[in-house]
Inverse folding.
């Protein structure tokens, strides 16, 4: 539409138009709470279940770091390295050091990459999550279906994870570790700060109310 309006104005078929963009509503911080995420992460990544390592890793990356499915399916073997007892995953400019339990899953996923092609599993030498077509990764939609089968709705879990990270990491670090753009990292940090600012007066009010109630409660007569 923009190209058409520019063309129409250039050819004197329309006058100059000024269209203002509506204000961005901002990020709404919500999603599963920390206890729920911990419980689901433990259930998905435990060693006695039969899930493929790649599926476990994808679930962990959504729950812990808020990655989107389209980011996960683009991960390649070279994005995981293991040196001096540390496993690192490169999502952004700086490598992300994985917790030991997730590191073990990542190394297993890197070592065992199979995809069902022509009715038999075929190994892949590029993609961490190979797809059914030769030389192509798993599709985002296929990964979303896998995650939903585990009870992980990607968007709410992404929101919860990034909200948690933005509370503890400066925008620049958040962007370099997770692959977010600097603009989006700032948006997340701003949203967290705004949420905390809204919550603080409620906390102060609750504390004050509780103190006032305690002061105004008549003392019980001593026996």
């Amino acid at each position: 539409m923009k190209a058409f309006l520019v063309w129409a104005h250039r050819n004197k078929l329309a006058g100059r138009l000024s269209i203002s963009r509506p204000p961005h509503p901002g990020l709404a911080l919500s999603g599963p709470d920390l206890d729920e995420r911990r419980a689901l992460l433990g259930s998905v990544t435990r060693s006695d279940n039969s899930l493929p390592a790649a599926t476990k890793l994808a679930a962990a990356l959504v729950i812990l770091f808020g990655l989107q499915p389209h980011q996960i399916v683009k991960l390649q073997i070279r994005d995981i390295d293991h040196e001096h007892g540390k496993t690192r995953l490169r999502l952004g400019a700086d490598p992300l050091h994985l917790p030991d339990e997730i590191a073990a899953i990542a190394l297993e996923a890197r070592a065992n990459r199979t995809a069902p092609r022509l009715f038999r599993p075929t190994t892949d030498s590029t993609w961490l999550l190979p797809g059914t077509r030769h030389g192509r990764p798993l599709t985002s939609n296929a990964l979303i279906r896998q995650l939903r089968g585990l009870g992980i709705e990607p968007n709410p879990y992404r929101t919860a994870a990034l909200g948690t990270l933005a509370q503890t990491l400066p925008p620049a670090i958040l962007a370099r570790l997770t692959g977010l753009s600097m603009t989006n990292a700032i948006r997340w940090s701003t949203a967290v700060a705004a949420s905390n600012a809204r919550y603080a007066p409620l906390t102060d009010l609750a504390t004050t109310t509780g103190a006032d109630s305690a002061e105004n409660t008549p003392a019980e007569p001593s026996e």
